[in-house]
Amino acid sequence: MSGADLRTEVHQPDGGVVLDRLVTEDVAAKLARQDPTLWGPEAESEASIRLGWVDLPRTSRPLLAQIDALRAELREEGLDHVVLAGMGGSSLAPEVIAATAGVELTVLDSTDPHMVRRALSDRLDRTIVVVSSKSGTTVETDSQRRAYLKAFADAGIDGARRIVVVTDPGSPLAELAEREGYRTVFLADPHVGGRFSALSAFGLVPAALAGVDPAELLDEAEAVMPALAASAPDNPGLALGAALGAAHEQGRNKVALGEGASPIRGFAAWAEQLIAESTGKDGRGLLPVDVGAARTSTPGWGDAGDDVIRVSIGAPDDAVPGQLVTEGSLGALFLLWETAVAVAGRVIGINPFDQPNVEEAKRAARALLDAPSGEAAAAEEPVFADGAVEVYADATLLGSARSLPDALQALTRAVPDRGYLAVLAYLDRVGDARAADLRGLLARGAAYPVTFGWGPRFLHSTGQYHKGGPPVGAFLQITGAVREDLAVPDRPYTFGQLIAAQAAGDLAVLRSKGAPTLRLHLTDRSTGLEQVLQAAERVRS
Ligand SMILES: O=P(O)(O)OC[C@H]1O[C@](O)(CO)[C@@H](O)[C@@H]1O
């Protein structure tokens, strides 16, 4: 399909059987009419309150004047450093939008105390904080809000004037904002779920305050609405959804997302949440694998196995045959992918609008934080330490391994057939950025895909798939010592304790499902990380 703003190349792995069926069933037109019956009777009540995204390019228009007015006020007051406190669907879209437009937006989607401290110490006098949470109850976002209010108070700044809220009507955050007199509250459409909210107040407000033109994004998306609503085989959203769904039915249930030549930056991280949280449940689903720049030599791209579908975001590398291509303006791509994932959800036979397993890790973390002090700290002992790295795993996984390289090697051997290895780094994604190199190092020559996620960010993205999708993952969790902790104001825990509880809760849930897990704790972050990177280089697939 080709159009001014959107170009897709999609091959149907089943010769078009699924696509033809979707056309006959009039799925695209029904989706455009927000028909909640498309995912079966069990999903119907949830779907009936989750389809507002289909019309956002039009229904978000009234927001623009409100955003413009606020932006002008902030400029007048010299508040030009925009921080976004939010997780998952409340931060991933604005991050791509701002990066693509080349404007600065500080995205704080972590509980790592070093990362929070760094944000707090950066241009506080010129900072406006957008606190974004659909539910208004997300612990990370609430903790970040508290930390900023304290920092403003300590600096003699009126914090309430520096907080802009985006949330659903009636949420606890909306009520709090009203009570505390926060500067502005944008109430979002409650009929749009987090990961489908790119073109709502959640995507637009922070990005626009940072300097992006939100009208342009809506124009780009609106331009492709007719193509996405057509019950025809050349509907790009229907074709992409059919291809992903048909591939899943054939056991090709991993999607390598590669960034091709394109001005769009970081789209795969957004698509990752959309795909993983929407489809990864009931033991089924598509595993998104963000491989970064898609070059022939990129591990997990040129050499991906036959259970992986490659999708290029942007112009493809023609040396790698058989890839699907989605290329176009950012607004168009958002709507294309939302449509495709909703369609794939119907083919796979899941409810794309819930995330039933995310709560498990949250509950486990909460239980640890609520435990009488000392209990959480008296956690398990490492099996052994190698330099600045403590190693935690069960004896069955480690066998006789008593060095870091051997432990890593043991984990790679435990990756199930047609499975995957996930690196879960509960670290500082700025200060410990090199940890992300582990994906490529561990994927070189591997017969399985390797994913990488920063904790707790990934808990709101691929975390759902890891716990609810096919049980074929092996998990490498990395945690790090805290050099300088930070209290979460008016809470009985610090950020260091919070991230530790989130990591421990996550690990407990993965273990309870019988997944092979290895935890590496860096007692000194930079030395330990260097050791882990060196050990990863030595792993033989
Ligand atoms: O916007 P909220 O309610 O803070 O939620 C953030 C994220 O957490 C989840 O609800 C669950 O991980 C995501 O679906 C969502 O995008």
UniProtKB/TrEMBL annotation:
<protein>
    <recommendedName>
        <fullName>Glucose-6-phosphate isomerase</fullName>
        <ecNumber>5.3.1.9</ecNumber>
    </recommendedName>
</protein>
<dbReference type="GO" id="GO:0048029">
    <property type="term" value="F:monosaccharide binding"/>
</dbReference>
<dbReference type="InterPro" id="IPR001672">
    <property type="entry name" value="G6P_Isomerase"/>
</dbReference>
<keyword id="KW-0324">Glycolysis</keyword>
<dbReference type="GO" id="GO:0005829">
    <property type="term" value="C:cytosol"/>
</dbReference>
<dbReference type="GO" id="GO:0097367">
    <property type="term" value="F:carbohydrate derivative binding"/>
</dbReference>
<dbReference type="InterPro" id="IPR046348">
    <property type="entry name" value="SIS_dom_sf"/>
</dbReference>
<dbReference type="GO" id="GO:0051156">
    <property type="term" value="P:glucose 6-phosphate metabolic process"/>
</dbReference>
<dbReference type="GO" id="GO:0006096">
    <property type="term" value="P:glycolytic process"/>
</dbReference>
<comment type="similarity">
    <text>Belongs to the GPI family.</text>
</comment>
<dbReference type="GO" id="GO:0006094">
    <property type="term" value="P:gluconeogenesis"/>
</dbReference>
<keyword id="KW-0312">Gluconeogenesis</keyword>
<comment type="pathway">
    <text>Carbohydrate degradation; glycolysis; D-glyceraldehyde 3-phosphate and glycerone phosphate from D-glucose: step 2/4.</text>
</comment>
<dbReference type="InterPro" id="IPR001347">
    <property type="entry name" value="SIS_dom"/>
</dbReference>
<dbReference type="GO" id="GO:0004347">
    <property type="term" value="F:glucose-6-phosphate isomerase activity"/>
</dbReference>
<feature type="domain" description="SIS">
    <location>
        <begin position="70"/>
        <end position="217"/>
    </location>
</feature>
<keyword id="KW-0413">Isomerase</keyword>
<dbReference type="Pfam" id="PF00342">
    <property type="entry name" value="PGI"/>
</dbReference>
